[in-house]
UniProtKB/TrEMBL annotation:
Catalysis: reaction(s): prephenate + NAD(+) = 3-(4-hydroxyphenyl)pyruvate + CO2 + NADH
Keyword Secreted among record annotations: no
Keyword Cell division: no
Family: Belongs to the prephenate/arogenate dehydrogenase family.
Full protein name: Prephenate dehydrogenase
GO molecular function annotation: NAD+ binding; prephenate dehydrogenase (NAD+) activity; prephenate dehydrogenase (NADP+) activity
SUPFAM superfamilies named among the record's database cross-references: 6-phosphogluconate dehydrogenase C-terminal domain-like (SSF48179), ACT-like (SSF55021), NAD(P)-binding Rossmann-fold domains (SSF51735)
Keywords: Amino-acid biosynthesis, Aromatic amino acid biosynthesis, NAD, Oxidoreductase, Tyrosine biosynthesis
Amino acid sequence: MNELQARTRGSVHIIGAGLLGASIGLGLREHGIDVTLEDLSPTTVALAADYGAGRVRAAGDPSPALVIVATPPDVTADVVERALLSYPEAVVTDVASVKLAPFLELTRRGVDLTNYVGSHPMAGRERGGAIMARADLFVGRPWVVCRDRETPAEALALVEAVALDLGAVLLEMTPDEHDRSVGLVSHLPQVVSSLLAARLLPAPEQAIGLAGAGLRDTTRIASSDPELWVQILGANREPVVEMLDALAADIAAFTDALRDPAQPGAKRRIADLLAAGNSGVSRIPGKHGSSERFAVITVIVDDRPGQIARLLTELGELGINMEDLRLEHSPGAQIGFAEIAVLPEVAERAVADLTERGWRTL
Ligand SMILES: NC(=O)C1=CN([C@@H]2O[C@H](COP(=O)(O)OP(=O)(O)OC[C@H]3O[C@@H](n4cnc5c(N)ncnc54)[C@H](O)[C@@H]3O)[C@@H](O)[C@H]2O)C=CC1
Ligand SMILES: O=C(O)C(=O)Cc1ccc(O)cc1
């Protein structure tokens, strides 16, 4: 393999070789970095090594330059403390989804945190385990680093080097800022998505059969691991409870207006809440990490092999850069919809050129 020049200097030891640990290992191995692995489960560590995420740590191995703790949040503080004691020369980071609880626990225990830099890649998948690991999991995703005044520059640089080698985008936050932020953009959506998906349980099969992109978009993360999320939500309960209370108030206001839409002002209240959603969604960063939004062209494709490949080839021939692609099947019909995101300035030409070539657009 053609190895990419690494920023990370020295060897890396990963404790917890599940989804996050094995993904980091896979990515670092692509840069030729020596990665050793450790896990409570001998099967997980062997699996991660078999997939190419690193090698099982041996008794005589020298101390690593960096230890990455990728264990569940409820044992993160324990494992970080142990790593700092076992490898006093090493920098130690963790990737837990919450940053304040482990930091406060380590501080409460009086652990010397000079060599510890908490971090959190905002990238994951619904299912954990080494078998789900991907080297490109972190590409283009934010990676938060929490340093304090005592953090030595070299320690910070080493953690940042790993994030950059894995293609992530660095951000600095305090543990408190981090937890409030992820409470809003990750933890609240998880609860809403799960509760919404749970409403589907009593529904008849026929109703579920009508489901389209709207339901899929709003429930994708409802497949997440309940055990991990009990830990994450429990550790970040203060901001999440605050946000759930505020959401409950919005739901109550919305429901009241909808209960009697004929009452004066009710329709306005409903419209205002929906319009606030329009404004909120427009703030979600696009593919390039800015608020830039793309124009979406919907192309009708026959449900036959090779149609999507032909469409993509023709887009390339037309010199149209596709920023994103989503496929949607029409229930019961032999057609699908390819939703292609392009820069707004090329949208009109793209529709004209595709139409000229015989494609139908919506
Ligand atoms: N799953 C996700 O989407 C994301 C998870 N995270 C964080 O990454 C961390 C790991 O999560 P995943 O990789 O998803 O979980 P996972 O369940 O896939 O992997 C965790 C691994 O840690 C091992 N482990 C548990 N206790 C241990 C201990 N005391 N010593 C050594 N190994 C131990 C387990 O056997 C398991 O293989 C968590 O703190 C999570 O909050 C961060 C970003 C995204
Ligand atoms: O929420 C998201 O956007 C994800 O991609 C999944 C995820 C889950 C847990 C994390 O700590 C970070 C990311």
